[in-house]
Amino acid sequence: MSDIMTDADLASELALSAGRILLELRESGKFEGKELGKAGDEAANAFLVRALREQRPEDGLLSEESKDTAERLEKSRVWIVDPVDGTREYGEGRPDWAVHVALAIDGVATTGAVALPGLDGGLVLRTDKIDKFPVHDGPPRLVVSRTRPAAEAVSVAGRLGGQLVPMGSAGAKAMAVVRGEAEIYLHSGGQFEWDSCAPVAVALAYGLHCSRIDGSPLVYNQEDTYMPDLLICRPEWAGEVFELL
């Protein structure tokens, strides 16, 4: 990697490379289930942290798999990463997991990439290269948790005549909206900054609506990294969703 890489290039390259590490580890057959998930988290995190420390030594860093420190709170630029978003899905051999690499500047999810290595051929969606995806004409599809769909999402889907689409990781759900496979991702069960920073950066770049479910902005690099809720949707559905919440 070169020091002259743009932030978007760096995010994309790191997400792609971490995804390859994770696929190689899974294909090795050395681990299964929860042990595979744990090994994947450790391997991908070690790679991402080392690379970011080398490439952007002056920036702050927040990772799900590293001990947090207060140092990042003094930084304007903070990288927020989730080495394996959807560890359970990864360990089960499912495709709906992701790698998140994002840069928040002054609390705003600004630049980033989300890798979906489990899809056929793999895929990286990034903030600086916008692809065209189909637009759905009809009742909305709402991506929800496979095991604990948010009550608000179930209610909104019913009142809009929409369809619930169970899916794994937060990144996979958000990218389903970006890719035109769903129109709404409404989550109220609590997450952390690393769960949504990269997906939100990419979704914003694609012109989607991103906010808390009360309409307030999503603010990153906070002392408390817990984020209670999230709405990512096509802009034409945002108004109706807020009216129903």
UniProtKB/TrEMBL annotation:
It comes from the Bacteria. Coiled coil: none annotated. PANTHER family: 3'(2'),5'-BISPHOSPHATE NUCLEOTIDASE 1 (PTHR43028). This is 3'(2'),5'-bisphosphate nucleotidase CysQ.
